[in-house]
Structure formats: C-alpha cells, structure tokens
Amino acid sequence: MSALPAPSLLRLIWLASPALPVGGFSYSEGLEAAVDAALVTDEAQASDWLLAQLQLSQARSDLPVLAQALQAWRERDLARVRALNDWVLQTRETSELRQQTQQMGRSLLEWLRHDQHAGALPLAECAALPPTYPVAFALAASPGSASAHDVLLSFAFGWAENMMQAAIKAVPLGQSAGQRILARLAQALPDLVEQALATGDDERQAFTPMLAILSSRHEAQYSRLFRS
After folding, report:
1. Which end of the chain is more exposed for a tag (fewer CB within 10 A), N or C?
2. CATH classification of 26-218 is 1.10.4190.10, yes or no?
C-alpha cells in the first residue's frame, strides 16, 4: 500500500477534526441521557459504552455508508448517493439523531462552499438531497487519492475524539481518563474499518434499541449540555 501524499493526509485530518465548524461538539449521541439514567457513571462505563456504540452503530451503519458514498461520489452516481442518503435518514430512530445528521451535513456542505479545494465538487447536487453527515463527508473526501480505508479511519477517529470529549463533559471525567478512552477506541478502529469495508447493502443495519430509547428520553430531559 503506497503512502498517502501529505496534502491528502492533512486534508483527511482536517475534515475529521472536531474543530471543523459542523457542530459535532454539541452532540453526545445519547451519552448524556445514559449519564442521566446512571448507566454511565465512571471512566470504565464510559469506555465500554462508547466502544459498544462504535461496534454496534458506527461500524455497521455510518462507516459502510461512508465507504459506499465515497465511491458513488467519485463515479458521479447520483442515484446511488441519494439511495444511501435516504437510508441514513430512514434508519435514524429519533428526531434528535435525525436532526444531528442533517444539521452536520448542511454545515459541512456550507463549509465546502468556501473551501478553495472544493471548486469541482457537485455541491448543488449534494445540496438538493439534502445531505446527511456521512454522505457530505464522503463528498468532502472524494477528491484526491485517499483510499476508502484512509477516509473511514479518519472519520471514525474524529467520531471517537468527539465522543471522548462529550464523555469528559457529561460524566464528568478528567483529561487523562479521556485519553485512555480514546486510546481504547483507536485500538479497535482498524478492525472495525475492515469490517465496514466488507459490509454490503444487505448487511448494513442500524439496530441500537437502547440508544434509541435514551435518545427519545433526552428530548425531554430537564437539564442538558448537548443537543442529542
């Protein structure tokens, strides 16, 4: 496998950074509700929760969609892109989770409008969907020579870093605990990315009933730091 050129590598790091202005920092994806329900009360439980979410949700849902959307954008297969985008929306089980992927998708698309490297991208076609976050991220990563493996690794690490930060705020935890959680998640990423790359249309799934229940409860939670 050839090394990814430095500009392509840096762009992936940039796209996956929680500092990118797409609003990822404002979501906990059910973790805050799990803390409120006393299901997550310390570092060990937060680590277990996020690893399970990575395995059961990201690796079986968003990461396979991202790989498939990346190929579809590169081939300008808009029908395939739309089908994948519709699947993401149809499998978001609560209004909060649906609003999150739509808001982050819109924000990433808006950022791309002002990105000097995005001039040749089909931004109007993407806006017409409108895009969910995995589909918008696939578009942003589609120029250049980055492999699907590299794109998925960057996306997954960005998710892990963002969720680690959410755990620090919600549980709460210290920075050292957060880094231990991130190290555990990062160790699991290569195998989960390979799993996602091997996942076809008939194997994708979004079955996380506890997450859906907690997300529903979060919508009416009295005290909240996060939007999901």
Report:
1. N
2. yes
